[in-house]
Design brief:
Blueprint: H1 4-8, E1 10-18, E2 21-26, E3 30-35, E4 49-55, E5 58-64, H2 65-68, E6 81-87, E7 90-96, E8 98-106, E9 110-111, E10 125-130, E11 135-139, H3 147-155
Parallel strand pairs: 2-11, 5-7
Antiparallel strand pairs: 1-2, 1-8, 3-6, 4-5, 6-7, 9-10, 10-11
């Protein structure tokens, strides 16, 4: 039987791939994961915003995480998914290449990002999880969008209600 102290020393993370890299986001911020669907384009939206979807009566803005991170244009496949997350109180969808799994990551296996990746553009990286044979870049979902980008979403009138 697992004791409470052992459980509190780990976190659950949704692990996904994006442009060949492995990322993770705290499962507590994830509402659901859906298959790609038709996305309605919105005029004047920031370049990384693909548009909006109707998710059970709620209009959700969808961003292309590869474009947001400056990784280039991502090709969508049958494995592509939209992860519905809460970002600073807003519900948004993020397009990823493939959702791999949900992992329990020991807290002591998470290192802060190296100084070379610190800065305003990498503020969304909260740490690197060191697993047996791989590294997982852990995202701070509340910093995926900078304040200016959140304002752009508001100005484009595509925030979820």
């Amino acid at each position: 039987m697992t004791n409470f102290n052992q459980i509190s020393q780990e976190e659950q993370t949704v692990v996904f791939q994006l442009m060949g890299q492995v990322y993770g986001v705290d499962i507590n911020a994830v509402f659901e994961i859906i298959r790609m669907e038709s996305i309605t384009k919105i005029p004047r939206a920031p370049h990384f915003v693909e548009g909006v979807i109707n998710l059970r009566g709620h209009i959700i803005p969808v961003i292309d995480l590869a474009k947001r991170f400056g990784l280039g244009q991502n090709e969508q496949t049958q494995n592509s998914r939209i992860i519905i997350v809460e970002v600073s109180g807003q519900t948004i969808g993020v397009i990823v290449d493939l959702v791999q799994e949900v992992l329990r990551i020991p807290i002591n296996g998470i290192e802060p990002p190296p100084p070379v990746v610190n800065g305003i553009e990498a503020a969304y990286i909260r740490g690197i999880a060191i697993l047996e044979e791989r590294l997982v870049i852990l995202l701070d979902q509340n910093k995926i969008l900078m304040e200016e980008e959140k304002d752009q979403l508001l100005q484009a009138n595509i925030t979820a209600s």
